[in-house]
Each structure stands twice: as structure tokens, then as C-alpha cells.
Amino acid sequence: MPKQQPLVLVANDDDAMRDALQFSLQLENFEVRVHRCSADLLADCELRRADCLILKDHMPDMGGLDLVRCLRAHNIRLPTILLTANATPGLQRRAAEAGIWLVLENPILDNALLEGVAAILDHGGAPGDRAAT
């Protein structure tokens, strides 16, 4: 039986960014499910099967940090990459405390996102094994 593609879930309210993320991840042979908001991601029946989450820091319904906290409150601990417009030291500290694997600032340079996802998959995505950067 062929091995299942790694599943990456994306929550981002920016249509262009969501489409770009989906396209670049699919080019790398990931299964990708995209969502316009946190509530849609929470309702995804494949949530517990996900290998990685990519979340936008600020969304109208619930930002990425709050979403990770909500998931943890329900014993769902998934390796997460947080995308933000301003990766301040305070945000990086809060992200690390929430168990977020990696913080990336937009615009995402080079292959930072794909390298982050690959590192999560190579490492097994154990939460808390890597601080936000």
C-alpha cells in the first residue's frame, strides 16, 4: 500500500496568500487543505490526521495563537507554523509558550516555509521540541 502524503492544513483569510501556499505545498507533493478562517479549520474532519498546521497570526474570527491554544485545550497538539506581518520578540515569546514550532514573517523569504514543513516532518513534529524563531 502506498504511503499517504503528509497532510498540511492552512488557515489564512487572505485569498491570494492561501492560494499561493496551497500551490507551493502541492508542488512539494503535500496533501493540502485550505481554510478561510479558524472556525473552518476546527470543523475539518481531517484535523486530527494533520501532520502540520500553517496559521495566519491575525484572522477575523480567531488568530493563530488563540487557535493553537484552543486545540491544546482539546488535547490536539499539532506542529504549527505561524505566519505574521510583524514577528516581534513578544510575539515570538508567546508563540513559543503556546508550543508553536516556527514563526515566519511575511514576505516569506526563499524556501523558509517549505524548509520549516520539511523539518517538522523529519523531526516527527513533536511539540515543544523547537522554539519559535
Give a verbal description of the structure:
- This protein is an alpha/beta fold and 133 residues long.
- Residues 127-133 have low confidence and may be disordered.
- The protein contains five helices and five strands; from the N terminus they run E-H-E-H-E-H-E-H-E-H.
- It has helices at residues 15-27, 38-42, 64-73, 89-98, 112-123, and strands spanning 7-11, 31-35, 52-56, 80-84, 102-105.
- The protein is 38% helix and 18% strand.
- Helix 4 links the parallel strand 4 and strand 5.
- It has one domain (7-123): Response regulator (Rossmann fold, 3-Layer(aba) Sandwich).
- Strands 2-1-3-4-5 form a five-stranded parallel beta sheet, with helices on both faces.
Radius of gyration: 13 Å
End-to-end distance, in Å? 37 Å
Based on Cα principal axes, name the global outline: globular
**CATH topology assignment:** Rossmann fold
What's the CATH first level? Answer: Alpha Beta
Q: Reading side by side through the largest sheet, how are the strands ordered?
A: 2-1-3-4-5
| CATH level-four homologous superfamily name | Response regulator
Structural class: alpha/beta
Counted up, domains total 1
Q: What's the main sheet like?
A: 5 strands, parallel
The averaged pLDDT comes out at: 92
Task: State the helicity in percent bands.
Answer: 25-40%
Quickly count the helices.
5
Number of DSSP strand runs: 5
Q: Beta-strand percentage?
A: 15-25%
Helix/strand order, N-terminal first: EHEHEHEHEH
pLDDT < 50 stretches: 127-133
| CATH 2nd-level architecture | 3-Layer(aba) Sandwich
Work out the oligomeric state of the chains in this entry. single chain
